[in-house]
Specification:
About 50% of the residues lie in helices and about 10% in strands. The strands form three sheets. A four-stranded mixed β-sheet has the order 6-5-8-7. Strands 1-2 form a two-stranded antiparallel ribbon. A two-stranded parallel sheet has the order 3-4. Strand 1 and strand 2 form a beta hairpin. By secondary structure, it is α/β, with parallel strands linked by helices. It holds the Pfam family Biopterin_H. Belongs to the biopterin-dependent aromatic amino acid hydroxylase family. Keywords: Iron, Metal-binding, Monooxygenase, Oxidoreductase.
Length: about 290
């Protein structure tokens, strides 16, 4: 759940080279000048990054490391109850630190030997085609900032907790990593903005907010659910619908609220067969045919 227009705070680079992250007045860190200056500095690191360079080191305060430790500890308990086994096993393989915020380079160094994925820093919003396209090459764009320490279980925008606890644990799975790559290939293959939006929505309702039946229980595998302290407790009460490409690719969603419509895969095999096969082969024409189906 992220606030409207704050899904990513706008980032401005001035003529003098300075960088400003434009937080909304409702943002928990809006009145904290120290936090805002650090957000600006972290955004500047990403803006100056060149692909192939080591990810620049971001400085974090002790309060922020404590936020990571607290949220990591609480989410780990919830994951044991609500996450699918593939996610849990991948998290054990990755072995993220629990007592401090990992640097993105550290995440890459742990992840690359497992599935070939690496993290690259993002200052804020990344254009849709670029964000998804580089997945085909084994790169994942990630923010480096963390939520304001005053509200450790809430963020109005995706932060490093979402990007790493949600996505890096998932990317440590060979099966999930292949799905991410296929989504990236699909984003590069399609030409129209409509087809790209369709691919993006399928990603949203699966790898961000997907649920799956496992041993007769409804479990979560989407990074958006598994990184949200509140949403992970609520997803079983939502409108759960069967996995359906047309429905996922055409359903509108509101990022400012918990996702009230979710699509259930009956197994990981079904997710790969339906969604993986779609991403592996889709183009503008095939997507148009899906949308036109009665």
């Amino acid at each position: 759940m992220f606030e409207e227009a704050q899904y990513f705070a706008p980032v401005a680079k001035r003529e003098d080279g300075s960088v400003t992250v434009e937080l909304a007045s409702s943002h928990p860190g809006f009145a904290d000048e120290v936090y805002r200056e650090r957000r600006n500095a972290i955004a500047a690191l990403a803006l100056n990054y060149q692909l192939g360079d080591p990810v620049p080191h971001a400085e974090y305060t002790e309060e922020e490391h404590q936020v990571w430790a607290l949220v990591s500890r609480e989410l780990a308990v919830k994951h044991q109850r609500y996450a699918i086994r593939e996610f849990l096993d991948a998290g054990e393989r990755l072995g993220l630190p629990k007592d401090h915020i990992p640097q993105l380079q550290e995440v890459s160094d742990r992840l690359y030997p497992l599935t070939g994925f690496r993290y690259i820093p993002a200052a804020g919003l990344v254009p849709l085609r670029e964000f998804y396209g580089v997945l085909a090459d084994g790169y994942f764009h990630s923010t480096q900032y963390i939520r304001h320490h005053s509200v450790p279980f809430y963020t109005p925008e995706p932060d490093i907790i979402h990007e790493v606890i949600g996505h890096a644990n998932t990317l440590a799975s060979d099966r999930f990593a292949e799905l991410y790559r296929l989504a990236g290939g699909a984003a590069r293959r399609v030409e129209s903005e409509g087809a790209l939006q369709f691919v993006s929505k399928v990603f949203w309702f699966t790898l961000e907010f997907g649920v799956m039946r496992e041993a007769s229980e409804l479990k979560a595998y989407g990074a958006g659910i598994l990184s949200s302290y509140g949403e992970i407790e609520e997803f079983r009460g939502m409108d759960i619908r069967p996995l359906d490409l047309k429905a996922m690719g055409t359903t509108e969603y509101d990022i400012t609220k918990y996702q009230d419509v979710l699509f259930e895969a009956m197994s990981f095999d079904q997710l790969e067969d339906v969604v993986g096969s779609f991403w592996a082969t889709c183009d503008d024409d095939s997507i148009a045919r899906i949308v036109a189906e009665g």
